[in-house]
Amino acid sequence: MTSAVRHPADPEDPAPADRGGSGGTAPAAPGGSGAPAPVAAGSAAGGAGAGVREPLTLDDFARLARGQLPAATWDFIAGGAGRERTLAANEAVFGAVRLRPRALPGIEEPDTSVEVLGSRWPAPVGIAPVAYHGLAHPDGEPATAAAAGALGLPLVVSTFAGRSLEEVARAASAPLWLQLYCFRDHETTLGLARRARDSGYQALVLTVDTPFTGRRLRDLRNGFAVPAHITPANLTGTAAAGSATPGAHSRLAFDRRLDWSFVARLGAASGLPVLAKGVLTAPDAEAAVAAGVAGIVVSNHGGRQLDGAPATLEALPEVVSAVRGRCPVLLDGGVRTGADVLAALALGARAVLVGRPALYALAVGGAAGVRRMLTLLTEDFADTMVLTGHAATGTIGPDTLAPPHHAPPHHGPPTPPRRAPHRDRSHG
């Protein structure tokens, strides 16, 4: 039986204190000094020693990261499209979930593992594709890959990684997937797919919801540009030109004519399975399956594309129903606790991906911070499995959730819906 991911505490330095506000100094350029002090990266069980401040939740990582990242960098990572309604909804919908506990479950250690595309993951958690990890820490994507690999958990590398696919692969010891946008020059995208195959990546993740990036008002107001020392290491020529301003670049470089036939081209060029990321509806799920995808990621791009799109947990049942078991369905967007992971599995997801929390943890403590973040999340998931009576992930189903109609009847005037407060936390 594969038990929950648990590791002895490492003798790392504590996390830096939260400075408050959105200020702080920018991460040092590669090769420079000024990287944040690492956090303790081991098991969360037992807590920290006296006087040691270390993150205990993924929200703690967000709070600490906000205290040390430049304000415009924080907004680039944390922000969403438009009024950020979808960004806020991703977490709010998870927050409304209620779980059904089980008394005396008789479980010593649950088996938290899942199988995804032929690989056995020790927990149903991976790291979602996020651009430019070097914005958070000078060690960038190789540090994230090393941290995930130490726990046997996968990383999806972004097309806009600041380090080469090959360098990230050398740092990894767990499955790597490559996320792809389709550029107007299709050979750029197909060439990346072949490089991923040759470097040992196990799958490709084609983003299908982004003919161009959404209107992200924080970045427009801040005049955000990626710092000059951080570049898309895997792109050259017209695909890289102007990439310092992501919104404008996407409108020039991405192929808006892309259709589902490109799935087969990617697969033929690389020999790798192709997943579709950005599916929220049954018609798109049907189209993806018909195109031959090996998996679907239910995603709204962390609330960064169409503002007003459904939260991913809201969309998940519709997509799962349309897929009918023909390929695995994953989810990203708003996952912050073990209960969130369990809720996604209960509604049909095979696994979840977390994006912004990885960058926040990287900012706070480098590779050790990412490892601790993943440890917190997977241990919380294991505890939630026990408390809901599940010895293995395969038994988690809809009956684990308390249906809304089981709420006690309300008497008197109707209660207006409570609006979830928008917090400037991570959502993708």
Describe the structure using short key phrases.
428 residues; 8-stranded parallel sheet; two-stranded antiparallel sheet; 10 strands; disordered N terminus
Quaternary state of the chains: single chain
Give me the strand/helix succession: HHHEEEHEHEHEHHHEHEHEHEH
Say how many strands there are.
Answer: 10
Radius of gyration over alpha carbons? 21 Å
On the 0 to 100 scale, the average pLDDT is: 87
Note the beta-strand portion. 5-15%
- Taking the alpha carbons of the first and last residues, their distance comes to 31 Å
Share of helical residues:
25-40%
- What would you call the shape? globular
The biggest sheet amounts to: 8 strands, parallel
Would you summarize the structure shown here?
The protein is an alpha/beta fold and 428 residues long. The protein has helices at 58-68, 71-78, 85-95, 140-150, 165-171, 186-198, 217-222, 246-253, 261-270, 282-290, 312-323, 338-346, 356-387, and strands spanning 114-116, 119-121, 125-127, 155-157, 176-180, 203-207, 274-279, 295-298, 329-332, 351-354. The chain contains 13 helices and 10 strands.
Question: How would you describe the overall organization of this protein?
Answer:
The chain is an alpha/beta fold. 34% of the residues lie in helices and 9% in strands. The protein is built from 13 helices and 10 strands. Strand 7 (274-279), helix 10 and strand 8 form a beta-alpha-beta unit. The longest helix has 32 residues, at 356-387. The protein is globular, with a radius of gyration of 21 Å. 53% of the residues are buried.
